[in-house]
Design brief:
It is built from seven helices and twelve strands. It is α/β, with parallel strands linked by helices. The chain has a domain of 173 residues: Spore Coat Polysaccharide Biosynthesis Protein SpsA, Chain A. The strands form two sheets. Strands 3-2-1-4-9-6-10 form a seven-stranded mixed sheet, sandwiched between helices. The chain has a five-stranded mixed sheet with strand order 5-11-7-8-12. The longest helix has 42 residues.
Length: 274
């Protein structure tokens, strides 16, 4: 590892072990050598038994907490001088850490985040980007909040994450920027895809949110061939789940109608007692 500083990746997770274990695989194949992954898990079933045996993985079991609270615990436990947010449901390329850490090591920035976000909608199997104007409207300081990489001392001395589960990363970033921390946006170059799967913490519809004119359909699948089977299986499972719920709703909705019709038939068959 030479003199490279340790990067502590902090991954809060709750109740989606399939995504979380895939995110662990993305961490293990990073080309930046000096790294650790803290897994902050407050889900109903723990992940410990399913994790690979790797000393770079640090598993922490927690009581139920907001995402911001879990991020703060991860930062407090981190051994590295650099923190990288590592969300449990997004796709990361092998060079993500190297690309985002480089401006910090060169003294050009205190924080980096990815700009030009690629969005992939699993339910519709459709990739999207958006115009620069819409990107600025959607993402605080024009970078995706889930991709922040920063020096740990900023969290120690300037700001911590708000104790909430929505936009906690965006608010944290704004606090740091207001304190004078230097943000360097990294133009997306095949190292990050924002996965939309129907159960994201931030709920919106790709292609329509804020300004439909600002969305752009992207042909093809923005994921490497080795990872596509995982998402194909997820999309198929999601489609089956949606179909089952629709069937259940139709059946439940039809119940009162069938009951009324049965009562009407009984009343029609009742002999006249007058």
């Amino acid at each position: 590892m030479g003199s490279l500083p340790l990067v502590s990746c902090v991954m809060p997770t709750y109740g989606r072990p399939v995504f979380a274990l895939q995110a662990v695989r993305y961490f293990l194949r990073q080309d930046y050598p000096a790294r650790e992954l803290l897994i902050l898990d407050d889900g109903p079933e723990g992940l410990a038994a399913s994790l690979p045996d790797d000393q770079r993985l640090r598993y922490v079991r927690l009581p139920r907490l907001p995402i911001g609270g879990k991020r703060n615990i991860g930062c407090a436990l981190a051994r590295g001088t650099i923190i990288a947010q590592w969300d449990d449901d997004d796709w990361y390329g092998p060079g993500r850490l190297s690309v985002q850490v480089a401006p910090l090591l060169a003294g050009q920035a205190d924080i980096t985040g990815i700009r030009g976000t690629m969005v992939f909608d699993l339910e519709r199997w459709q990739a999207w980007t958006c115009t620069p104007r819409l990107h600025r409207l959607m993402y605080r300081h024009d970078v995706h909040g889930g991709t922040l990489v920063y020096f740990r001392h900023l969290w120690e001395s300037r700001a911590c994450y708000p104790n909430r589960s929505l936009a906690e990363d965006a608010r944290f970033l704004s606090r740091l920027v207001r304190s004078g921390a230097r943000l360097a946006p990294i133009q997306e170059a095949g190292q990050f895809v924002y996965i939309r799967h129907g159960a994201n913490t931030w709920s919106f519809r790709s292609g329509r949110f804020l300004d439909p004119r600002g969305w752009r359909c992207v042909p093809g699948v923005p994921l490497p061939a080795e990872d596509r089977p995982f998402y194909v299986a997820l999309a198929a499972a999601r489609a089956e789940d949606i179909a089952a719920r629709r069937t259940a709703r139709r059946t439940m909705g039809a119940g009162p109608r069938f009951f009324r019709e049965a009562i009407s038939r009984m009343m029609a068959a009742e002999p006249d007692r007058g």
